[in-house]
Amino acid sequence: MREQFRNWNWVVLSPLKxxxxxxxxxxxxxxxxxxxxxxxxxxxxxRGVTGAESKRQRLSFxxxxxxxxxxxxxxxxxxxxxxLDVMEGRG
Length: 91
What we know:
single chain
């Protein structure tokens, strides 16, 4: 049992040693963000998300998280989500 505990500690502490090594490298301090990109990001944050965009994001999320080898099509997932929306009073 003691040997298992020792191995467990090694596994947990091993990545920390790598992280400490990475932290010793100096970080670049001359990072510059494109001002046009910042303006677009700020505008998008103020605008918010439309209902249609939210539905597309939800469909993409659900479809993308189906188990590997799933036979459901994107259209089938969309139909299921639409039925759920109606059942829950969102549609």
